[in-house]
Design brief:
Layout (H helix, E strand, L loop, with lengths): L1 E2 L6 E2 L22 H39 L4 H33 L2 H7 L2 H10 L2 H16 L3
Antiparallel strand pairs: 1-2
Helix pairs in contact: 1-2, 1-5, 2-3, 2-4, 4-5
Length: 151
């Protein structure tokens, strides 16, 4: 057993404060340095970006298959025009994929300045529309922790 340095009463060694007088006995949470906080947040950010990257790849594959399918049917003019419906999102999905890959690379290197410069809500919304809901949601989820990183 331990004793309170303020009132001298016996206290549990696990106690954060004396139950008799309320005197603090130890810190409740260890104070983390900004580097430790960043390292913790970067781990979550890497996970969010990896999930966004994987689902964006799936979106690119789906749009490519759709575009190729309708291009094969090029002899039917109406269906050939439908291929354009898949090409526009395919191109935008590829652009979003390269952006997410750049963000992942920056997060892996710990390059916070580059990660913050590539981060925006606008890209999350573009991803929501053209690269799939899951990709966009994970980019939007990553936006908050990226903005909280300190350099």
């Amino acid at each position: 057993m331990a004793f309170c340095p303020n009132c001298g009463k016996e206290v549990s060694p696990e106690a954060f404060a004396c139950p008799n007088c309320g005197h603090p006995l130890r810190q409740q949470r260890p104070v983390q340095s900004p580097a430790e906080v960043n390292a913790s947040k970067l781990g979550s950010i890497k996970t969010y970006l990896l999930v966004a990257f994987i689902f964006n790849i799936l979106a690119v594959i789906a749009f490519a298959i759709g575009a190729l399918f309708f291009l094969v049917l090029v002899f039917i003019p109406f269906l050939a025009i439908l291929a354009l419906i898949f090409f526009v999102p395919l191109i935008l999905s590829i652009i979003t994929l390269t952006r997410i890959n750049q963000m992942r690379s920056a997060a892996e290197r710990g390059d916070i300045a580059t990660l913050k410069s590539l981060n925006s809500v606008g890209w999350g919304i573009i991803a929501l529309i053209f690269a799939g809901i899951i990709t966009g949601i994970f980019l939007l989820i990553a936006n908050g922790p990226i903005n909280e990183l300190t350099q």
